[in-house]
Every structure is written in structure tokens, then in C-alpha cells.
Amino acid sequence: MTVVGPFGLSVQDQALEADVQIGIAGVEQALAEATKSDVPFITVTAQHLKEAGGKRFRPLLVLLAAQFGDPNAPGVIPSAVVVELTHLATLYHDDVMDEAAMRRGAPSANARWDNSVAILTGDFLFSRASRILADLGPEAVRLQAGAFERLVTGQIQETAGPLPGEDPVQHYLDVLSGKTGSLIAVSCHFGALMAGADEWVADVLTQYGERIGIAFQLADDILDVASDSHESGKTPGTDLREGVPTLPVLLLRASEPDPRLAGDLRLRELIAAGFPADGQDSDARHAEALALLRAHPALAEAREATLRYAEEARALLTPLPDCSAKSALEGLCDAVALRTM
Length: 341
Fold this sequence. Notes:
Its cofactor is Mg(2+). Pfam families: polyprenyl_synt. The mean pLDDT is 89. The protein is an all-alpha fold. Helices cover 71% and strands 2% of the residues. It has 2 domains: 14-197, Farnesyl Diphosphate Synthase (Orthogonal Bundle), CATH 1.10.600; 198-341, Farnesyl Diphosphate Synthase, CATH 1.10.600.10. It contains 16 helices and 4 strands.
């Protein structure tokens, strides 16, 4: 049996499928409990994004990593809840920073209520994650603290931008490593740790998690430019319109202008001018820039970089024993390739 799960993950083993489904159901139940408060309004705000959906990618990785030990160990589900609560909390804060109006197809918390409510709700979720984490032992607390520090550092680096003389492309990859890779890496580490897997196995899975996390984020960069079907969950070209410097644009800026390359100079001109909502012919200029970027070598270069991270993730899995969980993790590397086509 093949089950297509988050990000196109294929599970071709009925026992693993059953374990994952039971585990995800347990995570959902625990998330519902963890987002309840004695104050009814806080319950509503805390469950707002949880009820809007989500792929539960991080809990899935906890569950798959736990397969290399005892997947039924008591700390597996709670640790999966910790990483998902942490992820959800960061979304509340991100939407305030980005002044986002929508999240997962629903009004963002800051749009539905206000910035203060959104920020405090994120803080509430962090506190609930910490309460659960405290019962998982000092090693789990240390790991989560390290991941959270890296996550916040990445967010600050993104906000501050590259330093004078710093390579903007490398700065961007460093930001993704902190903002995205850190929490996905600790998801894999938690699964292995709570399941009692060997330390070297936990180390391999942690490194895998960081790289596959970056690969999926970079794939989103590709989709924002190349997709016509809203695969990224956003209208194609959203980042381009909002002036968010994703990898294709950064690689374009890093390359030398080439008058011989069709549309190269025009594309640079359009991106430099931006696409203000009240600008004349903004939609037409945005559509032109998107079409030019799709045909530019910078997009192909970004795709190659994305696949490189996915292949590095796959190679890291080589020493692990062959099993259905390993095949599923390798399948995530294949999913990156499919998302960038």
C-alpha cells in the first residue's frame, strides 16, 4: 500500500503507515489539549492556526526518526507536540513581523484580532511547549533551547540583512539554516533520542533534518517563481511582488548583467524598481518580471542548489540500517525534486 502524505511522502509499508497514522492522531489530540486555556478567549486564539490545518511535517519527522529505536516510547508523542507548538508560535510572530493578512487560507491572528493578541498567543504556545518539554528531561531541554536560539538568530539575521561585504546568497542560506533547518533538525533528533536510538543514529538524522528542511524551503522559492498552480500555497510571484529576496533573485543579483541574454537587463530593471500596489501598470510589470525570471538561468541555478541540499540529505542516510523509515526519509528527498520540476 502506498500512502501519500505531507510534501508527497510515500509510505510503502502497512506497519509503518499504521504507526505514523496512530502517532499523528496522538499528536493532534495532544495539541488540542496543549492549546486549551482556562480563559476561553485564549483557547480561541491559541487554536486558531492549529485548526487552520498544516502538514505536521515536524511531528512526522519525529515519528519517522523514532522508528530507529522504540517508536512507542513515552516521550515520542510529547516531543512531537513540542516542536509543532514551537513552529505554530513562530507563525504567530512571523505574521506580525510580515504584516500578513492570511495564513493557511484563513485570516492571520494579527488581522483577525491585533498584533498584541498575536504576539501574546505565540508566547502562550511557547510556554505550553516549555511545560511539556520540562517532563522530557534536561537533555531535551538543552536541545530545544539550542534549536530555539538558532531559530531566533536566523530571524534576527534576516531582519538585519547581510553585513557590508557579506555574500547575500550565503547570508540567505545561513538564515534558512537557522529559521527553518534548526527546528526540523531537532525534530529528527527528538525522535531518535526519545526512542532510545544509538547516538550516532541521532546525529545522522539530525544532520539529515537540517538539510532536508533547507531543501524544502528552497523548493518553495522555486515554486513561488515557477508554479502556476498555487503549489506553494501562495499566488505565484508573491515573494517577487513583495520584494522578498529569495534564492533565484539573489542569484540573479549576484551574476553579471549580460546584454546578450534575452530579457536580462529588463528583468534587473523591473526588480530594482519593485512593484508597488499603487504603481502604474504594476500588475503588468510584475507579470513581465515573473515570465523573464522563469526563463533566466538564475532559476535553473536555484533549482540545482535545491537539489544539491536534497542529495546531501539522502547521502547522509547511507549508514543507517535499511528499513521502511529510511525509505520514507529518502522519499522526502525525491519529493524535493518533484516540487522543483
